[in-house]
TrEMBL record:
Gene3D superfamilies: 3.40.50.12480, Ribonuclease Inhibitor. SUPFAM superfamilies: L domain-like. Transmembrane segments: none annotated. InterPro entries: LRR_5, LRR_dom_sf, Secre_tail, Surface_bspA-like. PANTHER family: IG-LIKE DOMAIN-CONTAINING PROTEIN, SURFACE ANTIGEN. Residues 324-397 form the Secretion system C-terminal sorting domain. This is Secretion system C-terminal sorting domain-containing protein. It comes from bioreactor metagenome.
C-alpha cells in the first residue's frame, strides 16, 4: 500500500513539473508566442502568457523587437488576442521594442516587469486598463503616451523607470494606483506639495513635516487612493463642491486632522478605510441643505460631529475681480485682485495640469508681479486659491 501511494505521488509530482501555463503557442514573425484561451466559444479570445509552468521558467525568452499579432489560428479556430496576461514578458531583459495590436484591451500585472532594455512601446487606443507593476523597472523607457481609451492605471506601473522623463496622461484616466511613477525623473520634477493630474488630486508629494491646511482646488473630482496616507501634519482639509469620490486609504493615519470641510452638495463616495484612524469626533462642515445626506452616507456617518456650513462660509467667487496683464506675456505678468480679504496661493499650471510655479499674494495686496521668464511659451492656467475662493484664469506666454 505504501509503495503504491509513493508511486502515485511521484506520478503526480512529475505531471505537475511538466504542466504548462500556456494552452498553445504559435510562431509570428519568427518569434514563438504563448497563449491561454480566455473564451473557447465564439467570439474566441486568447491572452498572451509566458512559456513554461511558472513565470520564471524561461526568463529572457525574447530579445530585440517583438510584434504581437491581433489574432492567432489554433485547432481551426481564429482567436482574437485581447489581453497581455500576468507576467507575460517579465524579466525579458533583452527585449527592446514591442508592438501591441489594437485588439488588446488590457495589460495585466507584471506584464513587462523588469524588461530593462525596453525602450519603445506604443500602447494602442484599445487598452482600457494597465495592471500593477506592468512596466516596473523598465529603466530604458524615456517616454510614454497613455491613449485616451485608458481608464485605470494600477499601482507601481512605471515604478523605478529611471529614464522616464515624459508622460502624457489623457482626461479619460480616472484612477492611478499608489507609487505609480516613483523613482522616475518625470515624477521627481514635480515640486513638493499636492500633485494634480487632470481633474484629480493624485497625492501629496514628500512627507508632511510642517502643519498643513490644504484647500483642494476647484474642479477636482476625485482624490486618489493613499493620497495623504500617514500625513501626520495635516490639520485641516477643504474639498470643493466639484468633488465626487475619495479613494481607498486616502487619509488613513491622518491622526492630527482637526476639521474637514466639504462643499459638495452630494456626499462624495468613499473607498475602503478612507479615514481610518482619523478622530471621528472632529467637526465635519458640509452645506446646510446636505446635512442629513452626510449624516446618512456610507463612511461620512462614522463622524458624529457633522455640522452645517454657514452661508457665508461656502466658497463664493462672485465678488472677486481678477485681471492678468499683459496677456500674452513674455517675461513678467501682473495679477490684480480686488476684494481679496485673506492671502491666496497663486498656482501656475501647464496645459497638462502640472504645477510649474507657485507664489502667494498677501491679504490686502491688490497686485502681484509674476516672473514667467523661466517658462516656455504656451498656454497656462493661473489658479487663485484660498479657503473662500477658487478661480482660474488663462495666461499665454510668448517668447
Amino acid at each position: 500500500m505504501k509503495k503504491s501511494l509513493l508511486v502515485l505521488l511521484v506520478i503526480l509530482f512529475a505531471i505537475n513539473l511538466s504542466s504548462k501555463a500556456e494552452d498553445f503557442s504559435a510562431v509570428y514573425n519568427g518569434d514563438t508566442i504563448y497563449y491561454n484561451i480566455t473564451s473557447s466559444v465564439y467570439p474566441y479570445t486568447a491572452s498572451v502568457t509566458f512559456r513554461g509552468s511558472t513565470d520564471y521558467s524561461y526568463t529572457n525568452e525574447y530579445s530585440g523587437s517583438l510584434s504581437i499579432p491581433d489574432s492567432v489560428l489554433y485547432n481551426g479556430n481564429c482567436y482574437l488576442v485581447s489581453n497581455i496576461g500576468n507576467n507575460a514578458f517579465a524579466y525579458c531583459q533583452e527585449l527592446i521594442t514591442v508592438e501591441i495590436p489594437n485588439s488588446v484591451t488590457s495589460i495585466d500585472d507584471n506584464a513587462f516587469y523588469n524588461c530593462r532594455s525596453l525602450n519603445s512601446i506604443i500602447i494602442p487606443n484599445s487598452v482600457t486598463s494597465i495592471g500593477n507593476h506592468a512596466f516596473e523597472s523598465c529603466i530604458e523607457l524615456t517616454s510614454i503616451i497613455i491613449p485616451n481609451s485608458v481608464i485605470t492605471i494600477g499601482a507601481r506601473v512605471f515604478y523605478d523607470c529611471l529614464g522616464l522623463t515624459s508622460v502624457q496622461i489623457p482626461s479619460s484616466v480616472t484612477s492611478i494606483g499608489m507609487a505609480c511613477f516613483y523613482y522616475t525623473p518625470w515624477y521627481n520634477a514635480f515640486p513638493d506639495g499636492e500633485i494634480y493630474i487632470n481633474n484629480f488630486l493624485y497625492e501629496y508629494k514628500t512627507s508632511c513635516t510642517v502643519d498643513l491646511d490644504i484647500n483642494v482646488r476647484e474642479g477636482t473630482v476625485s482624490v486618489s487612493e493613499y493620497a495623504f496616507y500617514w500625513a501626520n501634519h495635516l490639520l485641516k482639509i477643504t474639498f470643493p463642491n466639484s468633488l465626487v469620490s475619495i479613494g481607498d486609504n486616502a487619509f488613513e493615519n491622518c491622526a492630527y486632522l482637526t476639521s474637514i470641510t466639504c462643499n459638495s452638495t452630494t456626499p462624495p463616495s468613499l473607498g475602503t478605510d478612507v479615514f481610518k484612524y482619523v478622530n471621528k469626533s472632529i467637526p465635519i462642515y458640509v452645506p446646510e441643505a446636505s446635512l442629513a445626506l452626510y449624516q446618512a452616507a456610507e463612511g461620512w456617518r462614522d463622524f458624529y460631529n457633522i455640522q452645517a456650513l454657514e452661508l457665508d462660509d461656502i466658497i463664493n467667487n462672485n465678488n472677486i475681480d481678477i485681471v492678468i496683464y499683459p496677456n500674452p506675456a513674455q517675461d513678467k505678468a501682473k495679477i490684480r485682485i480686488d476684494n481679496l480679504y485673506s492671502k491666496a496661493d497663486i498656482i501656475v499650471l501647464d496645459i497638462m495640469g502640472k504645477e510649474v510655479k507657485r507664489d502667494v499674494i498677501a491679504k490686502g495686496i491688490k497686485e502681484l508681479e509674476l516672473n514667467v521668464s523661466d517658462l516656455p511659451k504656451g498656454i497656462y492656467n493661473i489658479l487663485i486659491l484660498n479657503e473662500t475662493i477658487s478661480q482660474t484664469k488663462k495666461l499665454i506666454i510668448t517668447k
